[in-house]
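Subject: sequence -> C-alpha cells, single chain

Hey, anyone have a minute? Need the predicted structure for the following. Not urgent.
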Amino acid sequence: MLNLLKSRKAQLYIVSVVGIVTILYAIGKNLTTSIVIDTSELALRNDHFVFNNIVEKTLATLNASKSCEDLRFNLEEFKSIILRAFSPEFRVDYNYTIISCNDATRSATVSFNITLYSINSEIGTVFRKNINW
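Reply:
Had a minute. Here:
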C-alpha cells in the first residue's frame, strides 16, 4: 500500500510538471508573436543598401586602377554595369569627371555625382577622391 501511494505521488508530480511547462510554453508563444518587430518593410526598401554598395564599389574601382588609361576604362565599364544591373528597379545617374590624372606622379583626382532614383526615394551624393597608385 505504501509503494502504491509513492507511485501515485510520482505520477501526479510528473503530470503537474508537464502541465506547468505546457502553460508556460503557451504563454511565451503568445507573448513573442506580439512582440516581434516586422522588418520585412526594410528588406523590401533596399534603396540605401544599393546606393551604399554603388559608392563602395566605386571606391574599390578607383583603388584597383593602376594608370590613367586603366582608370578611364574601369570607370566607364563600371558605369555601364551599374546602368544595366539596376535598370529595371532603379534609375541611376552616375556622372564622374577626371579632374587631373598624371601617370608620372602616379596620382589622379576624380569628382563624382551619383544619384539613385526609385519609386520610394531619391538618394544622392557628390564627392571628390584623390588616388595614388
